[in-house]
Amino acid sequence: TAVRQKVQIAAPLHYRNLIRRHRRFLTPAAAKTKALQGTEPEPLAGFAMRPPPSPPLLPLLLLLVLLPSPPAVAAAAGPTSLEALRAAAGRRGASPATQERAAAGVLRRLLPSHALSFRFQIDPKGGVCGDSSCFRISNVDGSSKGGAEILIQGNTAVELASGLHWYLKYWCGVHISWDKTGGAQLASVPSPGSLPRVKGTAVKVERPVPWNYYQNVVTSSYSFVWWDWRRWEKEIDWMALQGINLPLAFTGQEAVWQKVFKSFNVTDRDLDDFFGGPAFLAWARMGNLHAWGGPLSQNWLDQQLALQKKILSRMIELGMVPVLPSFSGNVPVAFKKLFPSASITRLGEWNTVDGNPRWCCTYILDPSDALFIDVGQAFIKQQMKEYGDITSIYNCDTFNENTPPTNEPAYISSLGSAIYQAMSRGNKDAVWLMQGWLFYSDAAFWKESQMKALLHSVPIGKMMVLDLFADVKPIWQTSSQFYGVPYIWCMLHNFGGNIEMYGVLDSISSGPIDARTSYNSTMVGVGMCMEGIEHNPVVYELMSEMAFRSQKVEVEDWLKSYSYRRYGQSNVEIQKAWAILYHTIYNCTDGIADHNRDYIVEFPDISPSSFSSQYSKRRSISVVRKHPRFLGEVSASLPQPHLWYSTAEAVKSLELFLKAGDDLSESLTYR
């Protein structure tokens, strides 16, 4: 049944008028997740399959997110605006044939025995997906022996890979996770020639929101730092299978900065004192420290740049839109001498370097200084020279590093405008992607007037905000949908790359739906912003599915499906164990930020509450007060390792897992 829905967007008047003028774009299509001209596929034996229900047609926010022109020009573009946006995306993206080969490559690396069992087809003109992003799964009739049995269509290779994953999960009982969390359970896939058929003509699944974001600015140090291309290729495949189409791409930026800073007469010796070592790049990039763990060899810089080009090439082949870094103001100390009249501030001491000037107290160039725009523009242009015109979305988090010197809204607005000018002069289509963590971590400063000043310093549609901690502390609820600015609902989940079992499954299964369907919603995507990866696979599988679900998930039923797929067979003890885990370890509702730090992952000590814990507590408090970007609580009582669940119930779950060992002990995912 077709449903009509009035979509209202909290935006300036000219955007509301644009929406009224082109209201026909906002008419939802018929139910999207359905078996076309047939019935829904039968659930796989042993678990309940729940395809996502019907989302509405993507609102005009998709158009607003990447408008290539100022508001007046956009309004004048009339009904062709959406088509122009598509054309611009196609100009940056790979050809349909390239994307089809890329999707086939994902299949070949995952399941080589079935490389010929699937056919992939890009839908470039919207014949299958219309105005939204989708995948469509159907049978290939009359296929010869050894030929394709299943056809997967979609408008990018990410959609094709997502469709492949959806079929393997809900028709073949497959589970795919990181190798460190058990890897892929593929034993349940029938042999080629015997794949389950889709009942009816086809099953079509659409994204309710266009973007699925991935990574945190520190994941590059906690998880990626020593990866080679082989490991990156595996991760990009995982990303495509999970439907991620907006990944952060930070590798190799030091080699680009080297060229940019040299053009401003900074020497190699100056840069040796500026860049952090490989494992500390994230904090050097944010201006927390300098030189620590360095210097970086030229060979390492060149190797990382070459690796980044491979990463970006594969992302583009798969139809992803990489998010590249931009200039946040962090400069070498040499800038003070080279540009004595520039407004450059020395930051205070951060964490772990004890005020030693050899490592601490970096320098930040004020966005209000004209030099800021020159450096920012040069960096964007150098990236385009290295990689080509591959994206229009850039990350910048200047205010996570440094609270503005005054809370005067006009001043904050001028800073935001300058940051955006540095991007847009390098790329006229630039969109600023900003982490919204500062609005939570430094809430005492960022009141309504200050938030509006920053958020509205850029034309609506030229900024997206990551509601970074929406799984626990959603900012959209307290900021009137970020005062009309498009945002992405994100799950943070992990701090510091720690590996404790932890999650809030109910929040994940309902939070994005509540945000998207709320009054005046400006939500345009979902995202995973964990600081470290390769842990808690149940959390990341459910969160990934929310990119394709338009209604809340019944978690208990979903976990029955999950446990069947993860271990390759139905097991009563395992189902009971997961029901307990759902209501204990994966049902943390205390709202405390710094989980993943329970007793089992604390540094060894006689007692977790003894001297070291108190010392850590005092030290962390002093750090947080000086640096609001530090990912911890801002109150005087920082969270210490604690339990939020019954240990007796958790032990019951462990006992049930052990009982299941006779049947599952050979399974890597079980182990």
TrEMBL record:
It catalyses: Hydrolysis of terminal non-reducing N-acetyl-D-glucosamine residues in N-acetyl-alpha-D-glucosaminides. It holds the Pfam family NAGLU. Belongs to the glycosyl hydrolase 89 family. Keywords: Glycoprotein, Glycosidase, Hydrolase, Signal. The keyword Hydrolase applies. Residues 558-671 form the Alpha-N-acetylglucosaminidase C-terminal domain. This is Alpha-N-acetylglucosaminidase. It is an enzyme of class 3 (hydrolase). One of its GO terms (molecular function) is alpha-N-acetylglucosaminidase activity. GO terms for biological process: system development. Coiled coil: none annotated. The keyword Transferase does not apply. Its EC number is 3.2.1.50. InterPro entries: Hex-like_dom2, NAGLU, NAGLU_C, NAGLU_N, NAGLU_tim-barrel. Residues 102-196 form the Alpha-N-acetylglucosaminidase N-terminal domain. Residues 213-549 form the Alpha-N-acetylglucosaminidase tim-barrel domain.
